[in-house]
Amino acid sequence: MAKQVSPLNIYPLLPDDCESLFGTSKMAVATQLAGKKMKVSDVKEIYDKLPPEFAEKYEKLADLLSPAIREIEIGAGDKKIIIGGDDVMFRHTLSFYNKPPVAVDVWDTMSDDELFERINKIQSFQKFYVGDFLYLDMIAVRSTSGNPETFGKCVEKIIAHSDLPLILCTKDAKIMRAGLDAADGKNPLMYACDVKNRKEMTTLALEFDVPIVITAAGNLDETKSLSATLQKDGVSKIVIDPGTASYSAGFKKTFQNFIKLRKAGLDGDKDLAFPLIALPIAARKSNPRANEKLPQEIVADYHETITASALTVRYADIMIIHGLGGHELLPIVHVTDMIYTDPRTPSSVEPKLYQIGNPDSSSPVLFTTNFALTYYTVESDLASAGFDGYVLAVNTGGLGVEAAVAGGQLTAEVVKKNFEEARFNFEETDYQTLVLPGLAARLQNEIEKSMNIAAVVGPMDSGRLAKWLEENWPPEKKT
Amino acid sequence: MTRKMRYSDLEKLFQILQTEGKTDLQLSDLSGAKGDEKELLARISQISSLLGCETDSELEALLSNAYPVSDTLAAAKFNVADFTQFKQSIQEVTLGAGSRKKPFVIGGEKTMPYFFDAAMPNINRVTMDVFDMPVGLAKSVRSNYEDVLEDPAAWAKKSVNEFGADMITIHLVSTDPAIKDTSAKEAAKTVEEILQAVDVPIVIGGSGNPQKDPEVLEKAAEAAEGERALIASANLNMDYQRVGNAAKKYGHVILSWTQMDINAQKELNRKLFRQCGIEQDGLIMDPTTAALGYGLDYAYSNMERIRMAGLTGDAELAYPLSSGTTNAWGAREAWMIASPQAADSDWGDREYRGPIWEIITGMTLALAGNDLFMMMHPKAVQFLKEFTGILGNASTVDSEMNDDWLTEVY
Fold first, then answer.
1. CA within 20 to 30 Å of B322's CA: A171, A473, B184, B291, which one?
2. Given CB atoms, is B115 within the 8 Å cutoff of chain A?
């Protein structure tokens, strides 16, 4: 089912003197390539310098290591996005690759003010997470005017205002051509080619050399047929729309179509080994039988968010949404991020003493664990509140505070040892006081005894740390 | 003013091209243009539009032939194979008996959740949290329970009658020596009150204090004898044997709780079966739930691995799964009024952010294989039940997949 390459298949294609070429053993190179820790393109340069017979070996290697699901590029320049590239049905058996970009829609009957306000919202959206930000990735332009000229103008305005990659959404080939003309050189994704407009859309995809979505309203025979026909006519950059139901009641068919198409693609059906596009935007309509005591707009946002999240888990490689509320965007950007995090990479930071801002002897001293999420949260909470201080990331093997206290990885003894290793001397601080995470409150007495300092218990959530420090720092001098 | 690019203008263009000696093309050959010639035609089209010319119909016809497209669709039949690696079904477990009028069964899956190659034998169920004393709750959760916070029985009733709970979890938090140190006997009384108040199955939860819980759960299990409750929970850091024995003795199901460690889960399950004589249909697993954004990826993959191990033949892991979905409320995104990070975009209204945090945390785990959800917010319960209900339903509603979204002005 899953395409997983054994290092033993790679081994014979590698040069013998890997030690001098790669600085590591032949088997280690084979293992890293098989586990995708090293990309085949990373070794191209070295192969180019090898004797001619290695050109063929490189081709074999590239073929062996090419992902089962094709990678498709959308956009151009810095913001170019690659989608697809997966090899497995279940993320823990390897990892999922190329986090699905989230596109938000705009439409060509918006006034300039509305359009620019919406684009600004899309491109300025950011959510802090683990030392970095999560963003929205693309703009999907819909033609609500039905007029090619209006659509083309709208695309022009968007391009002048934003460098995010585009999805041009219309089934009318004339409108699509106007959009493609306006977006020439920007490599937008065309949505979409169906059985009715196939000829015109195929021509456009070839003429403009851009990726194209094929769609058949959930009919899988027709989906396969479209893919086979387009490929025969010379189109290779295909994205498949499995069909997203417009009501939540049809969600089961949508969900199973995604699974069927991905499995068929991974099993070797070349017509279906392409990235899948989800349309949570089409799922906004609520089931007529549902009676919610929520505003209709919020129900629509919820349906869209649930659809987007579930389809991210099960194989969507790109998606279009409409809602821009925090209650929708926050869950969506977190789900896409977490499902595409490499499950083999422990999420931890180097356990050491970190300086936030420009601390001196009167600055607060805190500790947290080296679980990346915990550390970065504390660090940025302090930094964004303008605090200077010292934060020790205690080595808990990457566990969070609560789990590490419960599991015995975070004890007074461990805290003491980590401060010693960091050569931090409390005697040189004005207050000789350590601030404990609220979730490690139970270590207070023991830390005071074993480290001979004052230990005070901070808040349960570091989001409240800034306020807590304002009220509690500096502490009374330890006597 | 746009000027028409005429067919005859092409001759001039080609003269230029010829004088530069780059291409030698006969106009008469263009209709059957191939390869480089196609490329050239496309360029001409671009040049003419750059020069502000529109193409005339004759030239357009030529250009449209630049990319020959198949007249008919290729015949193709979609085919997909079943997941042959799944050989073992998950154990079915019944919750509720005795005076419980609405018992139900969970488990029994033969493939991964809602996959196409086998029907979901039992739908997902939700048990809603009730506490034996007022506790700190997120504002948007609390507002649903203001009138019942002091009365666990009324709280349970409200959850069943108004919010559609399939089951009630009574958390005996007041028994913790650090809180109220309520006696096991007192706690057992609370359990009896809950059993009187509702006719759905119940989960009996301790305070999480590993020293006190065995005694509390034992007394409570006795008070609920014959009702086939879920005893929450046994774990490796406590006298799990005492808890397991009580579950077995009084006819309950045991919740085997471990902390995101598939090997520890196997170990505890094995110990409960061997040392306490728990029956095959008397165990549910809780491998720990972390909130979205706070380690849900680990919880997800751990659960998916456990379920896949069960389906592919590991007899020690082929049991239904339970999730403390309520943990979603630990995420600051669920309850804080705004982001503490100055650089974050607007987080929006927390009234709407909280429930969806719980829904998505639960929904993600439903897709990993979770069967039973411990939840808090009525709206979260409603949406999770709606969507898992649609996915788990034996039949498929063929609702429209239309293009309305393409042209609709929202």
1. B184
2. yes
Name which of A408, A412, A334, A403 is nearest A374 in CA terms. Answer: A403
CATH class (in words) of the domain with range A353-472: alpha beta
Residue ranges covered by each domain of chain B = 3-64, 92-392
Separation of alpha carbons A427 and B114, rounded Å: 61
Contact call for A224 and B77, based on CB within 8 A = yes
Query: Going by C-beta distance under 8 Å and a sequence separation of 6 or more, which residues neighbour residue B236?
Result: B258, B264, B267, B268
Return phi, psi of residue A455, to 5°.
-120, 125
The yes or no reply on domain A71-339 and CATH 3.20.20.20 is yes
pLDDT along chain A (479 residues), means of 10: 73 89 88 85 87 89 90 95 95 92 98 98 94 94 97 98 97 97 97 97 96 96 98 97 91 96 96 98 77 83 97 98 97 96 78 91 93 84 85 88 81 94 93 93 92 93 87 77
How far apart (Å, rounded) are the C-alpha atoms in residues B217 and B234?
10
Which residues have a Cβ under 8 Å from the Cβ of A295 and sit 6 or more positions away?
A: none
Residues near A474 by beta carbon (within 8 Å), at least 6 away in sequence = A362, A430, A431
**pLDDT score, position A323:** 97
Nearest Cα to A278, choosing from A329, A318, A219, A251?
Answer: A318
Among B47, B80, B292, B336, most A C-beta atoms within 10 A, so best to mutate, is B80
What whole-number distance in Å separates Cα of residue A6 and Cα of residue A2? 12
- In this structure, whether the domain defined by B92-392 belongs to CATH 3.20.20.20 is answered with yes
Interface check for B360 against chain A (CB to CB < 8 A): the answer is: yes
- For chain A, which residues make up each domain, given as ranges? 7-65, 71-339, 353-472
| Contact assignment for A327 to B352 by CB distance below 8 Å | yes
Bridge-partner residues for A365, per DSSP?
A390, A434
Tell me the average pLDDT across B15-30. Answer: 50
Kindly state the average pLDDT of the residues B264-274: 96
The tokens of A434 are what?
């350590």
Measure the CA–CA gap between B75 and B80, rounded to whole angstroms: 17
Chain B: nearest CA to A438, how far in angstroms?
14
Q: Would the pLDDT of B372 be above 70?
A: yes
Q: What is the mean pLDDT of residues B330-339?
A: 93
pLDDT digits (tens, 9 = 90+) for B72-99: 999 999 999 999 999 999 999 999 999 9
Q: How far apart are CA A149 and CA A174, in angstroms?
A: 9
Q: How far is CA B253 from CA B101, B201, B225, B282, in A?
A: 17, 11, 11, 4
